[in-house]
Amino acid sequence: MRKRLLSLVAGVGVAGLVGAVGVGVAGAAGAVGGVAGAACVPGQVVGNGGFEDGTSPWVASSGVITSGGGQSAHSGGGFAWLDGYGTTHTDTLSQTVAIPAGCSAASLTLWLHIDTAETTTSTAYDKLTAKLGGSTLATYSNLNAGAGYVQRTFDVSAFIGQSVSLAFSGSEDSGLQTSFVIDDVALNTSGGGTTPPPTTPPPTTPPPADSTRTPASPAYTVSLSSDASGATWTGHESVTFTNASASPLNDVYLRLWDNYHGSCPSTPITVTNVTGGTAGALTVGCTALDIALPAPLAQGQSGTVGFDLKIVVPSGADRFGRDGAFSFIGNALPLLAIRDVAGWHLDPYTNNGESFYSLAADFHVVLDHPSGLQVPATGTSVDTPGASGRTVTTATATKVRDFAWAAGAFSKVSGTSPAGVKVNVYAVSGISASSAQSMLNTSISAIDAHAGRFAAYPYGEVDAVLDNNFWFGGMEYPGFVLDLVSTTALTHELAHQWWYGIVGDDEYNNPWLDEAFADYSTDLALGSSGTNCWNSVSWASSSEKITNSMAYWDAHSSRYSTVVYGYGKCALHDLRRLIGDSAMTNLLRTYAQSHWYGVSTTAEFKAAAQAATSVDLTSFWSTHRIDG
């Protein structure tokens, strides 16, 4: 999952996460020079956008680019701090960026924090202006102050093929201070029909099964019908499975994850009329249901459990929630828990990250719904007419760890990546057509960039569902992601198609194995090298480690994103610099392929990394606090 943005949106309306207060791009007036003869190279063109590498190529007023003094970075250690003096003052920050021709889209993103001592609710005393070329992108003021950083996104496609100045100017009056703090500036280009890096075909066979992980080879068959709104679904689910373990399988557990969102025992996920076993009581906050099998299954034997299912989506723009007329239905289908050498994994739900740990499975899901609702879903979908005024969407997905869908009158834009992946972007009302198109271009670029590094995307199709009211930033499911209008966040969620989806992990006990790897992959896709990012690491305690479990991070929630995402990806950048770019590229590609549709562990990754280099990595793991 993308960093949950609790600290970033506190005190700020989430609907304001994207967009700007001020004037939109008016065109290319004032552009300097041009790069009209260049071919489109999808990527990121702002230099030192995280302010980690000194001042170059920025031109800034004295003291603007800094790493302390009472403000903090969005990520890493450096940031740009304009104004904040409480006296008449002007600060400037600028650099020239060349936006290659031939691209079909360009998007500028930055993270902005504004704090002020002003008490007025009506007068803009202190102002920050953002410009590209001669056009004002936005103007902010003390009236926009709030806790934490907020991401601002601008469609700057009008400047494609030009070399222009990206400039910020902060002006402060003689009264109370206002600070404008900027970090992680990026200008991403995409589209243009460029050829992606060659992708390695995915492995034709999965890795050898780990006989300690059972029940194995799950196959889910689901048939659900919705009410008129798409918020209540009723029907039936069954799952067939095999005992892979030498130890008999006496029972199985269903994880009813979304019961976290109810008040146990009054729950939004209801399982009744169980067949193929005897249901026990709900446990773990009503998120685990034990089903005793009629007779123990020996190794290699199979069983089937079926049940009636009711799903009621609660109000709230969440990964399982309803935002007005739009429902987001993640983690709603009951899934089999895993028993391995540690026993049954019945960890609690975490709202700070993920608790999910499941084996690759096959899904055949039939969703009967009103024809006025779009129903994007995991897998490949086919729509057929249903009863009067209704449509039946049949989704098929193979070798995926979960199944998610959404329902609503979304707008939809679609495209196909140069490597042949079909990409669909669904947007709630309120998201502009240009934003949806920009995110389609981002998705197309990102899915091929990741495939070029880790092997081809195997699922054929991916759906991105956009809602700027999501408080958590974004959420990944196989072939299906939830996101804000954000190039960085969407690129991260699509990286999860490999790190969590294809290469699985125990997300509760080893969250770094998907989040750090997805953030590192995002940096690579967006052209960030993570230079010097480890220099800003500061541990909160001796017990804080990149490899800590969600049990630790739920008790230290303010440090979760900083350490697991930030320090985690910086450690991977450091590993790349230590063993070399080529060795790191080969390591991740071969590691992904050797765990294709399997499960990754920290110990396995450390062993693979050591095998990829002659450098002794013992001290590296210790310094970077990577245990396991």
TrEMBL record:
Compositional bias annotation for Pro residues: 195-209
CDD domains, per the entry: M1_APN_like
Biased composition range(s): Low complexity: 210-219
Source organism superkingdom: Bacteria
Domain (Peptidase M1 membrane alanine aminopeptidase) ranges: 441-623
Region described as Disordered: spans on this chain: 187-221
Cited PANTHER family: PROTEASE M1 ZINC METALLOPROTEASE, PUROMYCIN-SENSITIVE AMINOPEPTIDASE-RELATED
Protein name per UniProt: M1 family peptidase
